[in-house]
User: Fold these one by one.
Assistant:
Number 1:
Amino acid sequence: MTTLDCAAARGMLLACAEKIIESKPLLTEIDSRIGDGDHGIGMAVGMQKAKDRLEKMEACSNVYELFQEMGKTMLMSMGGASGVIFGTMFLGGTKGKEPLPALGCRDFAGLMADSLEAVRIRGKASAGDKTMVDALEPAVRAMETYGGDDFVEMLSLAEAAAAEGVEATKNLIAKFGRAKSLMERALGFQDAGATSVWIIFGAMRAYLAAMS
Ligand code: ADP
Ligand code: MG
């Protein structure tokens, strides 16, 4: 699969929403260990609203608009740090982009790289701070480095990089959220938001793999 048109993008984003909703118990459990336990609930609420919004949208001719609506809906419907952060992960990169009816691998890697930048500006977290950036940054770098034109191949690399990033958060001390006050007591536990990023890339890969 070498192009992501509106129909494929919509299906892919709906798959992300469904997978996160399905993973609510897992995310809740992970956030309960070192956070306040609300990450799964917040993400599921935002993703359900985003799913409703995408399903109701008229046929669209600009792929970026789907990402924009997804992010906006999450920003508006979710509370906490993750509403802003995960809303921006979908919305941030669309700013200033000329409308496109379909994206190639380079366009998609560029979109997510700009979203990462927006997340970093909004949340002020860097790699190593035990946040979702620890999964998003390696996933984006893997897509930027990828030289081919196959979405499934590119997303498989991103998913694997995100998984490594999640694993790495176990050895980090948090600079944000409730886990921060736990200091080294948070060692050994993975970050909830990073886990969501990995789930999102996995859902994108699985959806497009099943389509092609
Ligand atoms: P809250 O922290 O408000 O309870 P959630 O539990 O839903 O929100 O989300 C927590 C997750 O959000 C963390 O696991 C982390 O990955 C991510 N996060 C928190 N603050 C930031 C930040 N400043 N930048 C990036 N990600 C962040
Ligand atoms: Mg929380």
Number 2:
Amino acid sequence: MTPVRIIVTAGPTIEPLDPVRFISNRSSGYMGYKIAEAASNRGHIVTLISGPTRLDPPKVKKFVSIETAKDLLAAIKKEIKKSDCLIMCAAVGDFRPDKPAKQKIKRTRALSLRLAANKDILRALSGCREGKLFVGFSLETENIIKNSIKKLKSKDLDLIAASRLTKNHNPFDNRKLDVLIINRSGQKMLLKNKSKSYVSHVLLDKIEQLWYLMNNRGTTQNVTRNKRRT
Ligand code: CTP
């Protein structure tokens, strides 16, 4: 098939509190890096936009390093016009310290932090959505199906890959994991105890199928929806 121009976002965002401290999350970047690697090996043109990780970047067409959610949105906006597909694997921080201190905050007995909400990046990109495939991830500790379908709809996604974080199921790092892939029509595919490389290939199979349908038969709901918009 003709190569698809894919943006993969990966890793955590970090939000500064002062020049030496930040708030962030437990994302390792492993899933996004595996997707970028698998897509590149399939001959797709991959831009990997990544928050700080301990991983060596795979061989991709372009690698962009970011820190904050704002940086991530700006980097995607720069690339999105030249892309066919966005895979939002990054664990975007939903909050940032409202007013990061310019100097190191000194020790006190207690410290209250005021956090401001970051933008929802996928929603902020709705203006660049047309003719492209958008794939999201969803990490939940409860109500995985209900919450993930809600995200799929509210973020206008073609596919969402949902995973659960519980005492017995930790999807971080290079562990095997359970993933539920849900499409626009609500069809579900459960992958149980699979490696992130395996999950990447299943997702890419689905993305390639959708891309083919969009461009050769125009029969996906995505194309119908895009036509309705124009
Ligand atoms: N995402 C995004 N912008 C944000 C937060 C998340 O675009 N500010 C993307 C993620 O990259 C992922 C999807 O939205 O593809 C779902 O992210 P997740 O953290 O599971 O859910 P949230 O939308 O942040 O909702 P909540 O934290 O309330 O579960």
